[in-house]
Specification:
mainly alpha; 2 domains; two-stranded parallel sheet; 2 strands; globular; Kinase; P-loop_NTPase
Length: about 120
């Protein structure tokens, strides 16, 4: 249900002529395909970005050390939850960006995304 609400929100923002950034796990191909279809049907261009951390120890330390600061929510998710979600991940079947936070600083990953968004065509993402 949440995924459908998110997709409807994306569609509405695009109808209003606004840019949209979806910050979600996007672990299901079906969801990513739906977001691409909605975007393209509204005349937009979908730029997919997969955020990874190739250093498992660093990722675990980040997960276990963070505090989300969202009232009423747990401070963080458990490492077991992260591992479980990894098992649900459906790989990308199309070109997309892969942003590795273990090998590149955040600023460099942001520059890569902005460069992809500014490209005239989504080819080669």
């Amino acid at each position: 249900m949440a995924e459908l609400n998110l997709t409807a929100s994306v569609a509405r923002q695009l109808q209003l002529g606004l840019d949209v950034v979806i910050d979600a796990t996007g672990h299901r191909r079906e969801a990513r395909d739906r977001w691409r279809e909605v975007t393209e049907s509204a005349g937009g261009r979908f730029v997919g970005a997969e955020c990874v951390c190739s250093d498992e120890q660093r990722q675990r330390a980040r997960v276990e050390g963070r505090a989300r600061g969202i009232p009423g929510w747990p401070q963080t998710v458990t490492w077991e939850h992260v591992v479980r979600m990894r098992g649900l991940w459906e790989s990308w079947d199309e070109p997309h960006l892969v942003l590795d936070s273990a090998t590149r600083p955040p600023e460099e990953n942001v520059r890569q995304v902005l460069a992809a968004v500014d490209r005239p065509s989504a080819t080669g993402e």
